[in-house]
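Researcher: Next sequence.
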Amino acid sequence: MWGAAKHDRSSGVHRPLTATALVLSAAPETFAHSSVDAHELVLVAVDHCLLWPEEMAVLRARVSATGGVSEDRLLVMFSHTHGAGLMGLERAELPGGDLIGPYLDELADKLAAIVRQAKNEMRAVTITYGTSRCSLAGHRDLWDATSGQWVCGFNPQGPADDTVLVARLADFHGKTVATVLNYACHPTTLAWDNTLISPDYVGACRELVEQATVAPMFFIQGASGDLGPRDGFVGDVAVADANGRQLGHAALAALESLAPPCTRFEYAGPVVSGAVIGTWKHQPLSADARREKAVWRQRRWIVDLPYRSGLSTPAEIDAELAERQAAERAARAANDESLARDCRARVEIMTRQKIRLGSLPVGPTFPFPLHVWQLGDAIWVAVESEHYQVLQRSLRERFPRKAIIVATIVNGSIPTYLPTREIYGTGIYQETIALLAPGCLERLIEEIAKQIEKWVEGGRQKAEG
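Model: Next structure:
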């Protein structure tokens, strides 16, 4: 996964990679709020970085065919761990690459199996949302004054969204049957010195939460394009585990703070006890209030976003690749390991960019898919690509009374990063490989916000009526 690594194969497993399926289906009382074909969504969380478009399409088709779910209702969400290798079929000739094809076949079969299992084990639940804070994530756009360049590393002066959003899914007896954890932080604790397959911090976090709740945890990576672990890019798996426990404890704090299902915390009146005490109690929601919150609606649509100008042609990519490969061979012949490592990393960057450019639809714009749905008082947003944190910060600031879950790298990441407008031209990695024009992230935020506002205004008018 890392161009700077000196090894090609893993030496073992730190923690197993995990896949989790979450099937959501509307209760009958919500049908009035949604179209007939909108009554089911299948979410699959996978401990991998991402898949290229070709591998992604094959995986989704196989899971759909054998898992009993329509492709348009299947959303594959990647934890984005960088400790799991890059599973691209173009790497078949590299050491260990012959294992990638069979592994992807097995992965599809396992995902289809857990989807079927989740569908068979469905039950009625109430979803309760809450938040806490965790300082695991730090800003990672850093100006290196010594070398005179922008680098991807911890910037203690930069803003970092520390929101931990949790959802508890409980049955009507109050038992937790699953939890959802949404947090934005690149799983890049482990880097080129690590030789073990690993889910990075997500593994220890999941273990802690699942032990405490005795229920599966579904992890959703947030808008983390400019966020990564403060303590990261290391080879010590103990650091990844410590980062994971930090997030896990923050998630458990949020879960412990949640009210019982189907209740509202209300002022219950004064009690004279020396001082006059103002008491509060968790009161059951009325039948009307519960019906009002039983909302299920969704929208899928395409936003055409312009490509950035000056994208390399295939011929230019091939020429630069050949140049980088020749430089690597020369460095190795001269026993210059440091230069050889840098050249190898550049070769890896160019190889990946060639795949991305070759996957782009022909034309001046990219058809960017948006998927937004409302479950009760919460809004769920699913987008592909790696978005800067302003995506989630902006939406949560605009709609403070709604729990907003933001899932990125959904079904892949063809356009790569979506940085903010002002990042373009800095030369930082995230910007140099971005394929869409400046302003595209801001436009997506406005498109999503307009849809949420439409739903919020509609609910407000109904309540006032």
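Model: Residues 314-358 form one domain. The longest helix spans residues 440-464.
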